[in-house]
Amino acid sequence: MEVLRTVPPDRSCRAxxxxxxxxxxxxxxxxxxxxxxxxxxxxxxDLGTGVGFYLPEIARRIAPGGTIYAVDPDPENLEVARSRPxxxxxxxxxxxxxxxxxxxxxxxxxxxxxxxxxxxxxxxAGALDTAWRILRxxxxxxxxxxxxxxxGSRRRALRVSAEQWGLLVRQxxxxxxxxxxxxxxxxxxxxxxxADEPVPARQP
Length: 204
Ligand SMILES: C[S@@+](CC[C@H](N)C(=O)[O-])C[C@H]1O[C@@H](n2cnc3c(N)ncnc32)[C@H](O)[C@@H]1O
Prior knowledge:
By secondary structure, this protein is an alpha/beta fold. The protein is 29% helix and 24% strand.
C-alpha cells in the first residue's frame, strides 16, 4: 500500500512507549480487547496497530479461522507487529493510513479497533469513514483517545477535543456511545446498524 501523508505529517510513536511493563500493568491488552466482544472466526481490523500490542489477544479470541488486518504507516512499528504470536488466524499487515486502507473490502469486517490513533492523525474523519466502509452491518468499532494531551504544540493540535468529537459524531451516520470513559482515556463504541435498521443521516 502506498503511504499517503497529509501535510503536516501524521505522528508516529516509539515502540517502547507502545509496549512496556507499565502499560501492560495499567492497561492490559486483554481488558481492552474484551470490550470488542470477539468470537472465533471473526474478522478484525486494527487500524493504527502500532507495534501490535493487541494482536495476540485479538488472535486468541478469533482463532480458529479468524482474520486480522493490521494497518499502520510506520514501517518499523509494523515490523514489530509482524513478530507477534497470532496462531490460528490469517494476519494481513498493511502499511498505510487508516484513512484509506483500500485493500480491506467493503463490509467485510466484524470489529474495528482504533486505539489511540485518531490523536495521531489529521484525517480523523477519514479513519471513521474507513471504519464505516469496512464494517459489516451489525459490526462494531471501538475508538479510544486520550482525554488530554499536554506535551508539545503538535500533539495538542492533534488532540481530539470534546468539540471535535462532537463534530465527528455529527458527520458520521453511526450510533456512537461512550463506554467506560476513564481518567486517562475516552472510549466510544460505534455500531453499524444491521441491514434491517435505518442508518442515521449525516449532519453538516
Ligand atoms: C499511540 S500509537 C497507538 C498504537 C496502537 N493502536 C496501540 O494502542 O498500541 C498511534 C499509532 O498510529 C499510527 N498512525 C499515525 N498516523 C496514522 C494514520 N494516518 N493511519 C493509521 N495509523 C496511523 C502511528 O504510526 C502509531 O503506530
